[in-house]
Amino acid sequence: MRVRVLSLNTGLLKFIGRSVPTPFVPERASALPGQLRDLKCDIVLLQEIYGYANRRRLAESLQDVFPSAIYPRKKRNFGFENGLMVLSRYPASGDLELFRDAPLHEALFDSKGMLITRHQLSSQTVLTVVNFHTTAGGMFAHPEDARTDEIRSRQVRQVLDRIRGLSSPVIVAGDLNAGPGVSETNFRQILDAGFVSVHDLFHPASPDVTWDPINPLNSEGPHKACPPQRIDHIFIRAEDYRDNRIKPLSSVICLKEPAVQIKGEEAVTVSDHFGICVEIDVSSASPSDGADGTA
């Protein structure tokens, strides 16, 4: 069965009435449903869609396309609820797990973690998807600082430990805040654990990025001095790839066009990140299970 999966950090956070750190939250939030409709995906993984009301409105506006919307409410200490959300064309359920490790101010005021969802693609095929968002160092540390890398490494380890008990086929995706050339040890940590980056299968050594400091949404932000980088990823298990449980068909970086109109300003992209969209063919059985594909 062919399935299109999108991962996007939406950058939708308001604090004391202000859009921080990414501007124009109301305008971009209003444009998001139309942007998602146009992509014609089957499963949408979102990060940083803060505010229960924002998540509920998005789910309601897209209910005809994505009858399943998963966004459990959970937070730590005094801060924001977790900003993870999954939309699906298929019957789906899920649960949320917060990271045990975080920079100090994120431990107090943010609630990053992973959202594990199960999608009933057919009567015989269930696809498990892990949507995560790891730290970028918070407000005070550089995203590639050694301390940030170590915290992120422990968060990735928690994701990998959680995945170990999941049945195939499995997708792991989200905003890693690491990738080729930026905090690469964290990126390689996932690859070395037996996962394959779908985008790198089709575009090896590609200069494609999912976050760019020249984007007007980022040009005045806290990370404006960081280099362009591909930090949003969709991974599949190497064993699922080898056994044809998941056959990657394509991978593209999307939502790069400034399509959101801002009064008195130039149009902007729907988020400070670009999206990554893959098409895969998912099977419940591997060729070794039997000549006719049955157990």
Spatial shape: globular
Rounded mean pLDDT score = 92
Tally of structural domains: 1
Q: Please give the count of helices.
A: 7
- Provide the gyration radius in Å: 18 Å
CATH homologous superfamily descriptor: Endonuclease/exonuclease/phosphatase
Structural class: alpha+beta
The CATH top-level class label: Alpha Beta
Spell the H/E element sequence: EEEHEHEEEHEEHEHEHEHEE
Quaternary structure of the protein: single chain
Q: Order of strands side by side in the largest beta sheet?
A: 5-6-4-1-14-13
- CATH fold name: Deoxyribonuclease I, Chain A
* The CATH architecture: 4-Layer Sandwich
End-to-end Cα distance: 18 Å
Please give a handful of descriptors for the protein shown:
disordered C terminus; 7 helices; 6-stranded mixed beta sheet; globular; Deoxyribonuclease I, Chain A; alpha+beta; 295 residues
Structure, described:
The strands form three sheets. The chain has a six-stranded mixed β-sheet. The chain has a six-stranded mixed β-sheet with strand order 7-8-9-10-12-11. It starts with a strand and ends in a 13-residue tail after the last strand. 23% of the residues lie in helices and 28% in strands. It has seven helices and 14 strands. It has a single domain, classed as Deoxyribonuclease I, Chain A, CATH 3.60.10. The protein is α+β, with helices and mostly antiparallel strands and 295 residues long. The radius of gyration is 18 Å and the shape is globular.
